[in-house]
Amino acid sequence: MDVEKTIASPGRGILSMDESNATCGKHMPSIGQENTEDNQLAYRTLVTIPGIGQCVSGAILFEETLYQSTSDGRKIVDVLVEQNVVVGIKVDKPNPWHVSFSHARALQNTCLKTWGGRPVNVKKAKETLLLRAKANSLAQLGKYKGEGESEEAMKGMFVKGYVY
């Protein structure tokens, strides 16, 4: 696999899903859930949806996610790699790649709210994630029109002074 070409491929972006357990602890209360290991794993496995590799070229994972599995016993990493997603972990050093966009907040906000920590919502949350990924892909290509977006997805996520 040619890592550079894969990561920089048009219409695809890097999904930063390297939230630590402490950062997950900030997300969970926003959806009325406790910051438990089970909830963290359930949140991290939302990205394991067929088709995500068409829109996501790379995934930055929290280190423990490298060893975690989906409910059917498959490693999260394997599910992503099978879809041609380059997997890595954050090492707190500058990223040398030219990246046109990062999916993180744009994808995760609506997906997290859709899931709400409830198993019954997993399928819908995964569909929402894929829809957001496709919208970001189109935006990166200059083809996004915003048609058919949900009210939640249309809400602005701009946060003054937010630093990545």
What global shape is seen? globular
Query: What's the SSE pattern?
Result: HEHHEHEHHH
Main sheet strand line-up: 1-2-3
Domains (count): 1
Rg estimate, integer Å: 15 Å
Q: Which sheet architecture does the biggest sheet show?
A: 3 strands, parallel
Name of the CATH first level: Alpha Beta
Describe the oligomeric state of these chains in a short phrase: single chain
- What's the end-to-end separation, in Å? 29 Å
Structural class of the helix and strand makeup? mainly alpha
Strand content: 5-15%
Please count the beta strands (DSSP E, at least 2 residues each): 3
Helix proportion of residues, in percent?
25-40%
CATH second-level architecture: Alpha-Beta Barrel
CATH fold type: TIM Barrel
Family: Belongs to the class I fructose-bisphosphate aldolase family.
Enzyme class: lyase
Organism: Cephalotus follicularis
Pathway: Carbohydrate degradation; glycolysis; D-glyceraldehyde 3-phosphate and glycerone phosphate from D-glucose: step 4/4
How would you characterize this protein structure?
- Pathway: Carbohydrate degradation; glycolysis; D-glyceraldehyde 3-phosphate and glycerone phosphate from D-glucose: step 4/4.
- Pfam families: Glycolytic.
- It comes from Cephalotus follicularis (Albany pitcher plant).
- The chain has helices at residues 3-7, 21-30, 37-44, 76-81, 104-115, 122-140, 151-154, and strands spanning 13-17, 56-61, 86-89.
- It is globular, with a radius of gyration of 15 Å.
- It has one domain (3-151): Aldolase class I (TIM Barrel), CATH 3.20.20.
- Helices cover 39% and strands 9% of the residues.
- Helix 5 (104-115) runs antiparallel to helix 6.
- It has 164 residues and is mainly α.
